[in-house]
Design goal:
Blueprint lengths: L2 H76 L3 H20 L7 H20 L2 E4 L11 E8 L8 E6 L1 E4 L2 E4 L1 E7 L9
Parallel strand pairs: 2-6
Antiparallel strand pairs: 1-4, 3-6, 4-5
Helix pairs in contact: 2-3
Length: 195
Amino acid sequence: MSEHNKSEQENTAEEAVNSEVEAQETVLEAELVEPATQDADTALLEEVAQLKEELLRAKAEVQNVRRRSELDVEKAHKFSTEKFARELLAVVDNLERAMASCPEDDVVKPFLEGVEMTQKSFLETLKKFSVEAIDPEGHPFDPTLHQAISMVDAPDAEPNTVLNVVQKGYSNHGRLLRPAMVVVSKAAPKVDEKA
């Protein structure tokens, strides 16, 4: 064999070894890079999932704030006249007292009719703004709507029944403006049959 052939074979063998070494280095590099890339991908996916969850929570919070503010505005509109209506209740009471105190006389009759019409108009106006009277006579006593000013024995009535309304109560959109002042029946005393 000639020297030239030998050096070509050596070069070819060297190139084959170098190719194999480079291929192995490439595989090793890929193996090293691949886990690092997988870890980075996993971290990025976790971060994306976390950001999506934060976005959903932020959207839900914005919706809740919007809903709460809408409810607050609605309540403000609904109950804006509450203090004013509470002050006007004294006028309604005075009109009722005026009608109750007038004697049934022909001279006073036109005056009484005028007061009745005024009271009727006044109550209709209050009703337009959802201010309604609570007149519980004959109904069971409800401490959320009534204020008991007295309890009396009433053998013909059920215990805790409203017997008389001293002053009507009023509510505005279902919210109590003033409790009704009432007289309530109390339970009949128990008689000891052994005595």
